[in-house]
Design goal:
The protein has 2 helices and 6 strands. It is of the alpha+beta class. The longest helix is centred in the N-terminal third of the chain and has 18 residues, at 2-19.
Length: 134
């Protein structure tokens, strides 16, 4: 009889624990505003982070900083990105672009024969906008 009482008590406790179990919040979806930004061939992904309001990607691209900067200066405008600001020196390039209300910052840092490229986009419009023709 004691065993039966013990089993019933155990089931009652387990039932109560299941009923009171906290519901874990689903992971918050990160935006993918940078999904169509091109990368130079043989670039390697170093980091991706983000929040519901921003997306950040860091890559390491082959080639010197001036070549990598030229790639983005020429490739992004035909994709609908307007180059608003372009500030550079021999070790660093900072580009600020916009596309349909979406701001994007690109920071390039010279890393010897390679260039570290950091992309940051924030959700000014709240929705990712694909490039024209995609």
């Amino acid at each position: 009889m004691r065993e039966r009482t013990f089993v019933l008590a155990l089931l009652a406790v387990a039932s109560a624990a299941c009923a009171q179990q906290e519901h874990k919040a689903a992971p918050i979806a990160r935006p993918n505003w940078l999904m169509d930004v091109p990368y130079i061939s043989r670039s390697t992904l170093e980091d991706t982070t983000g929040t519901p309001d921003a997306e950040h990607i860091v890559i390491l691209s082959p080639g010197p900083i001036d070549s990598v900067a030229a790639f983005y200066r020429t490739r992004l405008p035909p994709m609908g990105w307007q180059l608003v600001s372009d500030v550079s020196d021999s070790l660093r390039v900072n580009l600020y672009l916009e596309r349909r209300g979406l701001p994007m910052w690109i920071e390039l840092d010279a890393q010897g024969p390679q260039t570290r490229v950091s992309f940051t986009a924030t959700g000014a419009t709240g929705q990712p906008q694909p490039a024209p023709g995609r």
